[in-house]
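Worked problem 6 (solution included).
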Amino acid sequence: MTEVELSRYRGRVVIGSAGDIRIDGDGVQPKHAVIALDKNGGGERVQVLRPIQGPVAVERKGRRMGVVDTWTLADGDVILLGSWRLTYRDLGSRQPGANRPPRRKELVTWLK
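Solution. The predicted structure is:
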């Protein structure tokens, strides 16, 4: 299993065979999907999933994502891209130091 912390990508991480998170295989486009920082209706910071290249196969909770869909991710969400299984983890706030505000630790792990 491989793991990446989303904060390394400054609010946007591309997933695909030529993305920040590189996965390959049948059905995976060079820039398949993106996880991006956004705000929900209440102004809270959330991570959202969007497809990038046309009608690509992205599934979450047994539903296939449409070209114009945007999904807000929750801790434990499993995303299927081709033969890959990605899991979004929100591990809550962590204290980086006494003089800095807490940061969220959000991870994506993947396994083929």
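Discussion: The two ends are 8 Å apart (CA to CA).
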